[in-house]
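Chapter review: from sequence to fold.
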Amino acid sequence: SDPDTGRSALQYKYISPVGKALAGGVADSKILEVHGQHIINGNFKLGAKAKTELKDLVQALELAAEMVVNLPATGLSRELYNDLVAMDGEELNHFALIKVLVSDWLV
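The token string follows.
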């Protein structure tokens, strides 16, 4: 973490450049602007909690199994939320999944 700005290595190295690259382009949007800033600031408290999202994903996968339906993307989402909860992120929102996605390759 930078002592002057409080920004983490994650914010400097990955998130800020992506936001700058998308700004003004086809992928730009008000939602990206607002929520992207929440991610850059490390504000993962708004919205649904990871523990609730995980509960819903588990229920969806249980129902799918009963119906013999394969939901690979839902299974991947469950794994990501499971990892976030294991990182003490049960009270955080879905934007905190960035922590799971980059945890293995941050230097």
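Two observations follow directly from the output. The chain has five helices and no strands. Confidence is low (pLDDT under 50) at residues 1-5.
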